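Troubleshooting: if your tokenizer reports a length mismatch, compare your output against this known-good record of 229 residues.
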Amino acid sequence: MLGSPPTAFLFDLDGTLVDSVYEHVLAWQEALDSEGISLSVWRIHRRIGMSGGLMMNVLLRESGIAIDEARAERLRRAHAAAYNRRSGMIRPLPGARELVAWLTASSIPWAIATSGRMETAGPVLEMLGVDPARVPVVTRDLVRYAKPDPDLFLAAADKLGVPIEQSTVVGDAVWDMLAARRARALGIGLLSGGYSEDELERAGAYRVFEDPADLLRHIDEVGGRRASM
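Known-good structure output:
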């Protein structure tokens, strides 16, 4: 019998595997306040998941305040410092550890692709129990463009040695789903980052689950099968 290769899973990090979206929101608000830029929290939340540089451009465009390279770098550093101060409060989302452990035990390839840089992603990965020396992790530092561009997911699939067309992107934001579509991968949305089911589906998600635990309960419905099944 001919066997098809297993589906590879490419995970976003914040809001997908760890409950960190609102820590990012508050960190960005603190960074913006330090530069005298006042923006509503909801506006910041709607941009979490896209690349930091692009998010700053959008937020500052909405505020009507000009940004130069020096200010952008100050904002990036201020956000990273504020986020890392909050990182001790971040926890894995329900079922996250069990999900990736099940994939590993089932010999199903998986990787992490995050718009964050390693300076902020590193402590969270350690808390999650993910060793970048053993699990492919692609951060903003390693690609030219982050979400909604497809570069992160293309690089993650390449690290796994699997075609992107045989990969499924799992994310909590519309930016993940848009990047998945541009990469020619299927997209699965999770509600754990604050976007609605309708928003995720309109952005390209073909299935939407509550969180990693809910995805694990239905993993066989989205291509997650043990090698012997």
